[in-house]
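Any chance you could type out a protein's amino acid sequence plus the matching backbone structure tokens because I've never seen that pairing?

——
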Amino acid sequence: MTRAEVLRRAAGQLAVAGLQEPRLDAEVLLAHVLGLPRLTMLLDTSRDVSGEDVRAFEALVARRATGEPVAYITGVREFWSLEFRVTPATLIPRPDSETLVEAVLRAFAAQPPARVLDLGTGSGCLLLSVLHEFSGSFGVGVDRSEAAARVAADNARHLGLADRAAIVVGDWAGAVAGPFDCILSNPPYIGEGEALSPEVAAFEPKTALFAGPDGLDDYRRIIPELDRLLSPRGRAFFEIGYTQAEAVGRIAETNGFSVRIHRDLAGLPRCIECWKSEKSLGMGTGNG
């Protein structure tokens, strides 16, 4: 069978399964089996696929038809133009989270952060993307899941950043001491009972998704720790649900922080930036 034929058949199977992008999923899976970049594979779809590769591909398509995410099937996901290994122990990195990296680059354009902390590091995508951009920075990633921490450490090695990244197993900020110039976190922020897509609900780690009845439990735990963790002019960046800007901002302000909201490519609030207010620094009231 040619590449075109196996792709056509697989896309049909995935469409029947109700998946939103059946052709794209089929292309990514076939490229993975063939060990080629997707666009390279598509340059010549008239080439034959060996029987062994067809069988391997069909097994992956069958997994995808059950709703298993492509990233878990292939074991990789691109984020910030870097390739990250992912497993069911970690959330799958999403483009929305790149909003945090963009916000960090703007905030530290004049002077890169010396020390970076990533709380709930998962695959390490946020921490390692920032370290990739700031060649002189050192970072610490914390995750309570040993399996996730192993993935993050593997990604640090794969990206050539292991000498500038320490991955620690711990419960939020309890395992580290400051000060850090930059703190990142994509904590769980889904409220209990909120609807999720079947793909996310069935396959991604629930401990990385849900945070109490209103989805704010982990912000309430982490933000009070910022006072001891942030350097005097440090900045913290949290991913938030698009309806949570006001609530998370209120938690930060109650704890003595000024805030700024950053929007994602869809124009939705996606990141909240926090820094110690002028008043909390003992310098009087500033303009934030």
Summary: The chain has two domains: 3-67, 89-276. The longest helix spans residues 51-65. The chain is about 40% helix and 20% strand.
